[in-house]
């Protein structure tokens, strides 16, 4: 491709609204342009990288037994109502009406569509298992689009769905696609971890996320410092063994704590440790209000609360709801003399507190010397807190450390969550109707591109790995008006294309500095500079990754480039 015949609008300055490296570099190098908040156009270079990511995904999915199809982005509301998600998915689902006042959604995901499709077409166990996948644009009305392609309102995704007549079959496919995902992200050159995850609004059990390690990641990974254990912090169980206290129990006392509402303020005012305080939070689980208590130095994990209560939605109660239900304001609620009828669930660490501090359910007052059983009852104990750095690893090996990660893939064992709700059944060997067992597997294609850009860039621009580079190499004649340089550049362009290299030729009438700066921004693996030694048939080859520069005769260039590519 000649550079004068394509669109690569590079920028000299970092855009003011681009606050992460991948967003900055993709904009500066002319790979993407923003149309609206969270909505981007992929320019020719960006589209080429997307296509390479897509082809890697296609190859691995087909190898894992998947068949590609394409489903509509415009989805009938009735399908979402069948699954029960029309009202529970949340405001991220983009809803609209057509001219006949029929409700539709722009596809945020495709469980409903694929389940209805397979329900209507597959009737016998003989047609199972079946794995179908697509690569398509998705739409989610993100409240706060940010980080360029990493969190947008329109994005490209690969989603796959598998259908089975047994859980053993689901397990087999899950493992195949789990391995396929590992292959995909390795081939993309990413530093990633597969971590235990929560299924969220998708439903189902046994899920893993694929996290690209990055300081700007929005997810926290809890991992063992000595083993392969890794989990999203939301899902990491706490296995800490708490010590029994030998402290003598004291009499309950109510004390004044004027204006003190947070654990930090109360513990400082009363000159006691945060680990001696009880943190009380009122949650609304579906339609039930529940008081959740944890130790003051711990944080409530709402995902664990949701899973314990088997609730669809768990939200922190508002100040108004808290006042209405408990007759007390934020910062003053507690389990002692709590309003009757409100269930109390507690983290395991609460069992071991002696002479603790908690809110007195009156503004500006707290109890000291609070002791469980004597002063309040707990309806249920469970692991309800977030794991912390330094806690024992759940697999029994090492201690927990934290890292940030960008989620690029997610695999779920859905079970019969959607097939039960939508009547997707097959006839088994005995002619009995059974619900299909499902799996679901997603990769953020455009997000993967951004994650690669995040890991493969420096202060000068991008550094594409060979598997994803939009072109293999960049030929730059220093002076396009010089006949020898121009003719040698054209000759090499043709010869290297014949050798099956994908070549970008900078044939623009620009200053050398502009060309070299743009080349570094674009980040192709190799740059071939045709300069003053063109008359001798000698060119310079620069390796983008290392900055190394070598002189090569034109007759040896193809062989030398092939060797360099092999060593990438």
Termini separation: 23 Å
Q: How much of the polypeptide forms β-strand, as a percent range?
A: 25-35%
**Percent of residues in helices:** 25-40%
Q: Give the overall pLDDT as a whole number.
A: 95
CATH topology of the largest domain: BirA Bifunctional Protein, domain 2
Total helices: the number is 13
- Going by CATH, the architecture of the largest domain would be 2-Layer Sandwich
- Uncertain runs: none
Main β-sheet: number of strands, strand sense, barrel status?
Answer: 9 strands, mixed
The CATH homologous superfamily of the largest domain corresponds to Bira Bifunctional Protein, Domain 2
Shape category:
globular
Work out the count of structural domains: 3
| Class based on secondary structure composition and strand pairing | alpha+beta
Identify the CATH class of the largest domain.
Answer: Alpha Beta
Oligomer: single chain
Number of strands: 31
User: What is the alpha-carbon Rg in Å?
Assistant: 29 Å
List keywords for this structure.
single chain; 568 residues; alpha+beta; BirA Bifunctional Protein, domain 2; YbaK protein; Rossmann fold; 3 domains; nine-stranded mixed beta sheet; 26% helix; globular; ligase; transferase activity; aminoacyl-tRNA deacylase activity
